[in-house]
Known about the structure:
By secondary structure, the protein is an alpha+beta fold.
Amino acid sequence: MATEVDHAPDLHPGAHGAELAPWITYLQQLLERRGAYTGAIDGRFTPAVEAAVRHVQQQMAEYAHAHHEPAVEVDGVVRLPVWHELYSGASNKEAIDALPGIKASTHHVETDDDSDDGTRVDWTQIAGMPGSGGKLGPAREIGRPGWVHGSVQCSIVDFKGDAYNGPVYVVFQDGENQQSDESGYATNGLCTIGDIWLPAGGMLRLTIEGATNPEGAVGPVFGPIHHRYELPAGHPMLGLHVRQVDDPQQVSMSDAEAHGWVQGTTVHEGVGFKVELGIEASAEHSRDEHHEESNQHEHTVNRTITVHLATPHLEITTA
């Protein structure tokens, strides 16, 4: 399987130049992800970078010796085996990305003629981001300027205000239109997607599946395509509050009964709707023909109620 480093150049200590700088930056970020380097990400092959490379080579040499494999030279030069070693370690963090691919193979959208044959939809289409030709390879984000290693924490409620439980899918896009997709799972309304690379600032779109859609069934619900965000400086954790948007409508009691939302003054809590409570009965004193107050009361009931209907949209605010 081809990777982003298959055609990476050999890098020698002290290497420099405009052509090599992006690769040195990539190397620094891979070394940082490995835990071998804590210096500046500046595209310069400094002695600190060389020391980090030698440290990784020493680990590779010890592993090779223990497993009776060919010896590894510890010389500070980054050749293809070192690139593959660093790349494979960084790619482990992307294992969670398998979830969108699974979703893409199983999710269906009803066709216009309501036939049983649904149209398969890729999660990149559901996410709505233009120009996405499929999932990124593992760790490709690491070499991008302005991308940081961080996490996303979401609190998510449906249109009734109940905690959401189910898959979460988010697409990030930076100012250069480079994208990354990540996924997780919300339990009791909380989802943390950690150990990922994302733009320090840009746009995102979040999608959930499992909340109620307007037809009362379970399906995808989408966030705004151009939600802008900025990560706090020095603290790369993005906090999001996500709420499914509802559509409040004033309806008559007769219409509400016809839809099955209420029966008399009894509220029926439904899947795709929520009836606003507070139907009040008022009592008015009646008077007899001599205008004297009677002990009898005439009861009247509010003839309109508010019904909140599910929509396929999410409201996202940055915590």
